[in-house]
Design brief:
With about 300 residues, the protein is an alpha/beta fold. It has 11 helices and 6 strands. Strands 1, 2, 3, 4, 5 and 6 form a 6-stranded mixed sheet that branches. Helix 2 packs across helix 3 and helix 4 packs parallel to helix 10. The longest helix has 16 residues. The chain is globular. The chain starts with 13 loop residues before the first helix and ends in a 13-residue tail after the last helix.
Length: about 300
């Protein structure tokens, strides 16, 4: 626990705050200076993580945090300033460095259709006929440790080969060292040619064996990696129901937020970054999602 305020499970520890604090932008003051910020930044960050983890509306923040308009103002400032993304990228780099991995990894792309909260506008929802889910579809690109590189949220009715173009493009622009990306057979077809011709990237389709059951089998270990990210990061309260709001809607909280996804991922990155020498990654106990399933030993380990 943080030792200040309410002591919620989502609060940062002292070690986590020591990693995050230097990455926040400096205080906004005029040319002649100005008054100091009224609320401790640590409690502002704790409040943001509380919203991401629980999925509550901004107005429902407990009273022991700063007033919700103040917390929301900081969130929009740090979102527009790029601080949220910088924090996430910095923590991901620390985790990869501690694990002895290259700075620029290979990539994995996957999608997940989820039911959404009642507050989500009907215009941004759709029906996934294959999964029989009405709601939204989340596309993620991760490295081989399951650390988030890109996230994109669309209506569940969007086909994988169409919705994947934007996160692949973002990965190409933000992480130019990622040359190869693995995907399952739902992404096969025109998308492979598009990635090669437009992005100059190798999108490799991993197909199931005809007699394969579930996620086991050779070549399927990457499914456990993306599954961990979807199960732990995207399982945070607001994200799992599609109700974690983008900065443009502080009251209703009815947008599935890439910033919220990075916030949830950043919290996990902060916990992992301080476990140098004993990191837990794909197939390990770091994620509840994978630990509840069996057969991980049958998968070929990823080394990229």
């Amino acid at each position: 626990m943080s030792g200040v305020g309410g002591g919620y499970p989502s609060d940062l520890t002292d070690e986590q705050w020591a990693l995050v604090e230097p990455l926040l932008p400096p205080a906004r003051v005029g040319p002649k200076g100005g008054r100091r910020e009224k609320h401790p930044r640590r409690r502002i960050v704790d409040a943001i993580f509380y919203v991401v983890r629980t999925g509550c509306a901004w107005r429902q923040l407990p009273k022991d945090f700063a007033p919700w308009p103040t917390v929301y103002w900081y969130f929009t400032w740090w979102h527009d300033d790029g601080a949220v993304e910088r924090i996430h990228d910095a923590l991901r780099g620390k985790v990869r460095e501690a694990d002895g991995r290259d700075a620029e990894p290979s990539g994995l792309i996957d999608s997940q259709s989820v039911r959404t909260a009642d507050t989500v506008p009907a215009a941004t929802r759709g029906f996934d006929a294959g999964k029989k889910v009405k709601g939204r579809k989340r596309f993620i690109v991760t490295d081989t440790l399951g650390l988030l590189l890109a996230v994109h949220v669309v209506a569940a009715s969007i086909q994988d080969r169409d919705g994947a173009k934007r996160p692949l493009l973002w990965t190409r622009l933000d992480h130019p060292g990622v040359k190869k990306i693995w995907a399952d057979q739902d992404f096969a077809g025109r998308l492979v040619q598009w990635a090669a011709q437009i992005l100059s990237r190798d999108l490799e389709i991993v197909r199931k064996d005809p007699d394969q059951r579930g996620l086991g089998g050779a070549g399927s270990s990457w499914r456990w990696v993306t599954g961990r990210c979807l199960g732990s990061d995207m399982g945070s309260g607001g994200l799992e129901r599609g109700s974690c709001g983008e900065p443009r809607d502080p009251v209703r909280g009815d947008r599935s937020s890439p910033s919220g996804a990075r916030g949830a991922a950043g919290a996990r990155r902060g916990r992992a970054a301080r476990r140098t020498g004993r990191l837990r990654h794909a197939g390990g106990p770091m994620t509840r999602w994978c630990s509840r399933r069996r057969g991980r030993g049958r998968s070929r380990p990823l080394t990229a």
